[in-house]
Amino acid sequence: MTILNIDSVSKSFDGFRAINDLNLAIDKGELRAIIGPNGAGKTTMMDLITGRIRPDRGTLFFDTTHDLTRLDEAGTARLGIGRKFQKPTVIESLTVAENIDLALAGPRDVWSALRGPHGKSAVKERARLLDLVRLPDPDLLAGALSHGQKQWLEIAMLLAQKPRLLLVDEPAAGMTDAETMRTAELLRSLAGEHSIVVVEHDMDFVRALDCRVTVLHQGHVLAEGPLDHVSRNPEVIDVYLGR
Amino acid sequence: MRLIDRNMTVFLGGLFILTVAIPLMQGNILPGYAIQLAGKYLCYALLAVALDLVWGYAGILSLGHGAFFALGAYVMGMHLMREIGTRGVYANPELPDFMVFLNWDSLPWYWLASGSFAATLALILLVPGCLAFVFGWFAFRARVSGVYLSIITQAMTYALMLAFFRNEMGFGGNNGLTDFKDLLGVSLSSPEMRLVLFIASALALAGGLLLARAITASHLGRVLVAIRDAESRTRFLGYRVEHYKLFVWTVSAMMAGVAGALYVPQVGIVNPGEFAPANSIEVVIWVALGGRGTLAGAALGAIMVALTRTLLTGWLPDAWLYALGALFILVTLYLPKGIVGALGDLRPARKQSKEVPA
């Protein structure tokens, strides 16, 4: 069973083909790494999946029935797609706990928000998540966290949404080696329960993920398979790894 | 988060004391017009709170909030015109003087409800609220934000000013609405009415502050801050940003309308100058001075600037605009968080100053 189906999708910006006849299928519970040189269309692909932009051609389906091309960012988020940006984006002037509270699954409309925060179960869930990403002080302002801690807070926020599909953009950027390995470990442990797509440049990190790899090039899938397999592919070496 | 925090306690306490003290001191320690003047300041303060709600918390820098204030003012002004009745120059029982002067033979349809005080109260909220809703609906859905939104709010108030200058609009053209006699049968110049309007302004300010605080202290307030600081992130968390902006924008416009409606009977006139872009920009200065995102600070900033203007225009009339400009530059350079924000930073040992282990 697939959670995400991208079928013959193309997207151009002012004549530049960012995504060119892209086909990609992610299984339920799968962990998938996507690699590719700059401009390969990784971010555009994420924008398409999350409804930020619409494809010129092709279809995107979530859980086989939901047409992603009809939804905006909030719509795809409510459907169960969580997205982590490359640059850690947490709400810096709110505390760690408040950041998690914003992300916790629940109603998102104005009136529910006015009525107040979530109940007791939310407090337990928040504590569980902060424990998972090892952030001990919930009352600290998010802006005071280190770069790596912000990345984890954002991952915790992502999990708080209870997403079925996680899109993670370069999580290891700016992390120390130890933090990078812990992040890989965390993502591996989350696979199964969630389906995860990781876009990454760091080859050690991709190796540590130990999963199926898709190589993107000029908005098209160049190769797919285990890392050892794709890294022997001469085309892949030519456009990406060999440089 | 508590509804009444420290700033709010101090401000509301101070407001209460002044509301009691000013009427007692008028005529002996303070000049005879003190109540009227103070009532006017309180209306400015409420307008500042309205702007702070959208600018300080949702990051919407409105350069057109004076328009909502002026619309509330015109709605009230229309009712006051109708109360003049046969005491006008032309003694027409139905038509205000300017309509008789323009040879109109009946009230335009949009003046029909102005005869009723209850309808006027409703329209004070509805007219600014509806304009804000329609404006916000288009602007926020189209994801207009930042400086572009500021520019179109400015254009909105400018366009309204030009429209209200026209005699054919039916709002008294460049003279606006004036020569008011009484409200609910009581003369506007009577000490009792002045006291009532002053106390009503104080209550409206306190109510506006508490409403704004209730919104910003709720979970919705967290969402607004998230939108202000990371709008895109907030969308990807599943929040429809445009709905939140529209909500707080409309509430804020209504609050500004109430401020305008209380202002008119205390100053005795409303004209298209109220829509002038400069007025709206001055509101931004009040909020910046007092402290953006502090609510009580915004009110304080408005009162301080208004008081300074009253004093300076008395002593050195030519210096006022220079003083206002200098004030804005100095605040931007040396008090970026405003007075209340700077005071907050002086308080010892807050969480953000705690050392973080890497």
Automatic annotation (TrEMBL), chain A:
GO terms for cellular component: plasma membrane. GO terms for molecular function: ATP binding; ATP hydrolysis activity. The keyword Ribosomal protein does not apply. Residues 4-243 form the ABC transporter domain. SMART domains: AAA. PROSITE patterns: ABC_TRANSPORTER_2. Keywords: ATP-binding, Nucleotide-binding, Transport. InterPro entries: AAA+_ATPase, ABC_AA/LPS_Transport, ABC_transporter-like_ATP-bd, ABC_transptr_urea_ATP-bd_UrtD, BCA_ABC_TP_C, P-loop_NTPase. PANTHER family: CONSERVED COMPONENT OF ABC TRANSPORTER FOR NATURAL AMINO ACIDS-RELATED (PTHR45772), HIGH-AFFINITY BRANCHED-CHAIN AMINO ACID TRANSPORT ATP-BINDING PROTEIN (PTHR45772:SF8). This is ABC transporter ATP-binding protein.
